[in-house]
Amino acid sequence: MTTPDSDSLLAEQLLRLTRRVHRIQKRHLQQSGLGVTPAQARLLRTLAHCDSPPRMADLAARLEVVPRAVTTLVDGLEASGMARRAPDPANRRVIRIELTEGGRKALRRLRGARVSAAEEILDPLTTLEREVLGGLLDALVGGAMEQDPRPEREAQPEQGRERNRGRTC
Asked: Measured between alpha carbons, how far is 58 from 168 in angstroms, rounded to an integer?
């Protein structure tokens, strides 16, 4: 049984861990030399999971940000050659966002940065502790998935990713 004090402590620990994870991932992202922000990296990963190029509004909904924020992110990725705007073939008024070959190459390097960040974060844990943590995170992420019909695929276990194949953003 948990008490309000123990729940408060857990909440604080989760917040501290989240900040630490973000700091470490940001550092590894900077060391990758790609020149992208964490938000741009997230947009690249989101684009990679789309079955077809999404609209800006689709990306904003998926990322849970205002459309203006997506415009700024796309501007930066487009300037670096990692994404491009393209007219929708069915409706020229609609603009779709496509991942370029440069964006796909950047994603491969980003995956390496994410793996090295994860190794650093998980280094203090034994194999058993990692397995337990994985189960606990699955339970927590699973609870969020019931509430959010658009879970971020990277936060899901492999079998959860399979269920979402064939979906667009």
From this structure: 9
Residue 65, CB-side half-sphere exposure with 13 Å CA sphere:
15
Phi, psi at residue 85, to the nearest 5°?
Answer: -90, 140
Confidence (pTM)? 0.72
Q: Are 54 and 43 in contact (CB under 8 A)?
A: no
pLDDT given at position 160: 43
What the block records as the tokens of 21 is 């994870």
The closest of 122, 118, 117, 83 to 100, measured between CA atoms, is 83
Specify the DSSP class assigned to residue 85.
E
Determine phi and psi for 94, rounding to 5 degrees: -95, 135
Tokens 């077809």 correspond to what residue? 52
Q: Say if residues 134 and 122 touch (Cβ distance below 8 Å).
A: no
At 67, the amino acid letter reads: P
Q: Quick one: pLDDT at residue 6?
A: 81
Distance from C-alpha of 86 to C-alpha of 95, rounded to nearest angstrom = 6
